[in-house]
């Protein structure tokens, strides 16, 4: 029986045990292939195209997405590659790295940052909503995070959308002269007013959508892993230390 193309392609993928990571040096053939494939992917912002361990199959990094594609760009696979012997997801660390690339391209000056008084051991980036209950809980425990050496960087993500009350609160916070004080006041359900400014709230929201954020708080760890929801400081430190 002849398998449909997509089933055959999936079967080939599962038959091999892993996909390789980044190759520092590409052969002329692979460089040519990467150029040809990129030209056949209109509308996709391709950051890198690398050969995999499967002959004729390439790994496409379109941060934060990871795709797999055939040399002629006719067969496209989107999903996770699992090592069937170990059960390890081999796509996840690649996707995490791609996600971290996107975060690192974001100017920290557009964030609200709470820095440990002593040594910074880890940095997390948090998509937050002024009116989100668990966002308020996380913020109320800020000293617990910073005391453990965790630097917390906020990006705005008002879940109710543009021009909602939450959005307007975020704009007022990000336009305040003292953002750190303003966000603390706002998360205590107190009113914050400020002059208009070139605020980054809309850009933060678009960034969140690009990364697949669909709730708050949403934590991006310093290795690119994404954790949805509130995590107590001690537990978060354990997670951060287990890379």
From TrEMBL:
Q: Which InterPro entries match?
A: DiS-bond_Isoase_DsbC/G, DiS-bond_isomerase_DsbC/G_N, DiS-bond_isomerase_DsbC/G_N_sf, Thiol:disulfide_interchange, Thioredoxin-like_fold, Thioredoxin-like_sf
Residues annotated as domain Disulphide bond isomerase DsbC/G N-terminal: 30-91
Instruction: Supply the Gene3D superfamilies for this chain.
Output: Disulphide bond isomerase, DsbC/G, N-terminal, Glutaredoxin
- Note whether Signal occurs among the keywords: yes
Per the record, a Pfam family?
Answer: DsbC_N
Thioredoxin-like fold domain: residues covered: 117-240
The UniProt entry, under CDD domains, shows: DsbA_DsbC_DsbG
Q: Which UniProt keywords apply?
A: Disulfide bond, Periplasm, Redox-active center, Signal
Q: Where in the cell is it found?
A: Periplasm
Give the matching PANTHER family: THIOL:DISULFIDE INTERCHANGE PROTEIN DSBC, THIOL:DISULFIDE INTERCHANGE PROTEIN DSBC-RELATED
Write down what this protein is called: Thiol:disulfide interchange protein DsbC
Species, as recorded: hydrothermal vent metagenome
Q: What is the lineage of its organism?
A: unclassified sequences, metagenomes, ecological metagenomes
């Amino acid at each position: 029986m002849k398998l449909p193309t997509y089933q055959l392609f999936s079967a080939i993928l599962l038959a091999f045990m892993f996909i390789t990571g980044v190759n520092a040096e590409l052969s002329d053939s692979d460089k040519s292939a990467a150029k040809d494939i990129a030209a056949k992917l209109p509308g996709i912002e391709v950051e890198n195209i690398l050969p995999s361990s499967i002959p004729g199959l390439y790994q496409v990094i379109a941060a934060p997405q990871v795709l797999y594609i055939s040399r002629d760009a006719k067969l496209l696979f989107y999903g996770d590659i699992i090592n069937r012997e170990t059960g390890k997801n081999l796509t996840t660390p690649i996707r995490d790295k791609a996600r971290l690339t996107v975060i690192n391209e974001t100017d920290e000056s557009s964030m609200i940052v709470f820095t440990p008084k002593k040594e910074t051991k880890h940095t997390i980036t948090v998509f937050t909503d002024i009116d989100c209950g668990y966002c308020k809980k996380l913020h109320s425990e800020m000293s617990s995070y910073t005391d453990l050496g965790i630097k917390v960087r906020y990006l705005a993500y008002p879940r109710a959308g543009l021009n909602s009350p939450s959005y307007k609160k975020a704009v007022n916070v990000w336009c305040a002269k003292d953002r750190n004080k303003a966000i603390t006041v706002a998360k205590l359900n107190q009113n914050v007013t400020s002059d208009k400014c070139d605020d980054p709230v809309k850009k933060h929201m678009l960034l969140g959508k690009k990364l697949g954020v669909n709730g708050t708080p949403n934590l991006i760890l310093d290795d690119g892993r994404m954790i949805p929801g509130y995590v107590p400081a001690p537990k978060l430190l354990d997670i951060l230390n287990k890379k």
